[in-house]
Design brief:
This protein is mainly beta. The chain has two domains: about 1-120, Lipopolysaccharide (LPS) transport protein A like domain (lipopolysaccharide transport protein A fold, Sandwich), CATH 2.60.450; about 150-285, Sandwich (lipopolysaccharide transport protein A fold). Helix content is about 5%, strand content about 60%. It has one helix and 18 strands. A hairpin with a 4-residue loop joins strand 17 (about 260) and strand 18 (about 265-270). The radius of gyration is 23 Å and the shape is elongated.
């Protein structure tokens, strides 16, 4: 799943050598309230790198509390961040966002949650609240999130559900696979890789076929976004109507659309007897 979270701008707030604050009120003592708060940052070439806007900012000796946060990060991919409230810790640079947190990347990926914390030193964003990530390939929901934005990696901690379109380039004929797990689930945008852990169940909605495993790893094709390879490990069970197969491991190859069951017994079977999709597609004629 293609996930980008736009907290790079918060790094720049505290490290960029060039920044400017613009507000509609004059400078005031250490404890002050500003209306129409605006903070801009520029890179070393003088180009605008980010901006943080709010309808109001309450500034004290220890933090800045912003109302109606609307922030933008400009780069190879622009990202917008909104929340009802935000707090910047002036001592350590950590950021807390509260209420209706929405992060939207230009490519169409959007993440929503109730609260989000950013640790500047660890470059880590976290929340214990429910999370929803939506992009053209599907929807992932779960409880709790941790991510390293610059590495384009994310983890959803528990109660994971992913509704994946296995043919995102054919919107008129969607083929859907639903994957649930107890979690955690990790995603790597660069490697186009996702891994689901603990009580994993994948169901092809077009056929009702099911795969059960302790762990499921999935690699996606960079160009087509189709499933390229999947490996299920531990207590693997494949259910097709009344038929059930058991093994220690299952490997699915997207180019040949073959499922190989490894263990006792080892089984290789043709799924072409029933029309399917994604990792359950029939073998080509």
């Amino acid at each position: 799943m293609n996930v980008k979270i736009g907290f790079c701008l918060m790094v720049l707030v505290f490290s960029s050598p060039v920044c400017r604050a613009d507000e509609s009120t004059e400078s005031a003592p250490a404890s002050q309230q500003l209306q129409g708060f605006n903070l801009n940052g520029y890179n070393n070439t003088g180009q605008k790198a980010w901006d943080v806007n709010g309808t109001k900012a309450d500034i004290s000796d220890t933090n800045v509390q912003i109302t109606n946060v609307d922030a933008n990060f400009y780069g190879k991919e622009n990202t917008n961040l909104k929340s009802d409230h935000g707090t910047i810790d002036k001592t350590n640079g950590n950021v807390h966002l509260q209420d209706n947190v929405v992060v939207t990347a230009d490519r169409g990926t959007q993440m929503t949650t109730d609260t989000l914390n950013w640790n500047r030193d660890k470059d880590l964003v976290t929340t214990q609240d429910p999370v929803k990530i939506v992009d053209p390939q599907g929807v992932v929901t779960g409880q709790g999130l941790s991510a390293h934005p610059n590495l384009k990696k994310a983890q959803i901690n528990k109660d994971v559900k992913a509704v994946v379109k296995t043919n995102p380039d054919e919107p008129s004929n969607p083929q859907i696979v639903t994957i649930t797990s107890d979690g955690p689930m990790q995603m790597d945008q660069v490697k186009m890789y996702a891994v689901f852990n603990v009580h994993v169940v994948a169901i092809d909605q077009s056929t009702g076929r099911e795969l059960h495993a302790d762990k499921m790893e999935i690699w996606f094709d960079q160009a087509s976004k189709h499933i390229k390879k999947a490996i299920c490990t531990g207590h693997v069970k494949a259910i097709q109507g009344p038929n059930v197969s058991y093994s220690d491991q299952m490997i699915y190859m997207g180019d040949t659309q073959v499922l190989t069951m490894i263990g006792r017994p080892k089984i290789v079977f043709d799924t072409g007897s029933t029309k399917g999709s994604g990792m359950f597609q029939p073998i080509g004629k």
